Amino acid sequence: MMYVGAIGGINPIRPATAYWMGGAVAARRDDSVRVGYYSAALRSEREVLKFCKGAGFDRGETWYAQHTREPLRDQTLRSWKDHGVILTDESVKTTSSKPRYTLDPDFAKLLDPALVGEELGRAIKAWQDKAFDPVALSRVDAARKKAKSEVGVLVRLPPDGKERELSTGESSWILKGVIEEFCPRVMQEPRILFISQSEEKARPEDIAFLKKIKMPLDAAKLLPDCLIVDLAEDRGHFWFVEAVATDGPITESRKKEFVEWAAKGGLSPEKCRFLTAFEGRGYGPAKAALPKLAKHSYTWYLDEPDMLLSWESLPHAGGATA
Q1: Is the preceding omega at residue 12 within 30 degrees of 0, hence cis?
Q2: Which residues pair with 227 in a beta bridge?
Q3: I need a labelling partner for 258 at 20 to 30 A (CA). Which of 74, 100, 281, 298 fits?
Q4: CA–CA separation, 106 vs 224, rounded Å?
Q5: What is the per-residue DSSP string for 276-298?
């Protein structure tokens, strides 16, 4: 879009303008080539190849595979539109082959090569604050924090804020969110009983504490990512938590295992709570896990920390739940 000057309603493109593009074309920066490519791409791929040959170079390999027009339109460009990156000529029907997309001028300013360093950072932040809603801003902030973290993820454990270092990775950021953001919103006196990660199944002190309260854990078999108890006198709920970056939600079979283990320690099913946490509702792992989630369980999303999804039965006519 920058190559052909598709900005602010001028020189609009269609998906084909992008997927007929390649490195050999992009390397030619003369205005005559830019204009020539744009004109040819408005007609057909054959015209693009003809133009390149006439300009004395081979177009070569394209950036996109053939037949990617629909994903480019329905995924990339639609997402850009939702976030204010592009403008769309609504007078052109979505089924039309006519061009309809240009960059929003305010966003295009961020691509100025002269804008660098702290000045670029301030400009990006200003654009994000203006263009994004609270959920999108939350995602941006989380991405920024992750990008800066090259070592383990530090999490503050309730109630005293003692720090523990988790391994690097998306699941650790999700788990950090559960402990620091979900717990204060839902529990009165949360205590982390143990945290399990691939590099460290469970710390010896965590295993020792569970044994002390007569709930010994088989670290080789039954390990949710985190076990949290609400110590408030009128609650006493045990929260089994799975932080899902790729796969591994709390399914019916997984829930059954947790309930059976809890029963061995004298804990009734009514005191058990089951939480699967994801980065966001719109992400692939969350969508894929939805049909697998156990009944009477909860789902929480890092980018929408004030919301909780409950998978419960509808009440019967008499008012009781199943």
Answers
A1: no
A2: 194, 240
A3: 281
A4: 46
A5: EEES-TTSHHHHHHGGGPPTTEE
Helix/strand/coil for 236: coil
pTM of the model: 0.60
The token pair at 307 is 């919301």
Distances from the Cα of 194 to the Cαs of 155, 172, 242, in angstroms?
Answer: 13, 14, 12
Residue pointed to by tokens 């997927």:
19
206: its two tokens: 């965590």
Reduced DSSP (H G I as helix, E B as strand, rest coil) percent helix, strand, coil of the chain, to 5: 40, 20, 40
CB 271 within 8 A of CB 262: yes
**Strand 101-103 with 153-157, pairing:** unpaired
CA atoms within 13 A on the CB side of 218: 10
* Of residues 243, 5, 222, 235, the one with CA closest to residue 102: 5
> Can you tell me which residue has the tokens 């000529």?
89
Phi, psi of 192 (to 5 degrees): -85, 115
Give the DSSP letter of residue 310.
E
Structural contact between residues 258 and 222, judged by C-beta atoms closer than 8 angstroms: yes
Question: Which has the closest alpha carbon to 82: 18, 15, 136?
Answer: 136
pLDDT tens for the 322 residues of the chain, in order: 999 999 999 999 999 999 899 899 999 999 999 999 999 999 999 999 999 999 999 998 898 887 776 778 878 888 888 778 999 998 888 778 899 999 999 999 999 999 999 999 999 988 888 877 777 777 666 666 665 555 578 899 998 888 988 888 889 999 999 999 999 999 999 999 889 887 677 777 777 777 777 776 665 566 789 999 999 888 889 999 999 998 899 999 999 999 988 888 888 999 999 999 999 988 889 999 999 999 999 999 998 999 999 999 888 765 555 4
Q: Beta strand pairing status for 297-301 and 308-311?
A: antiparallel
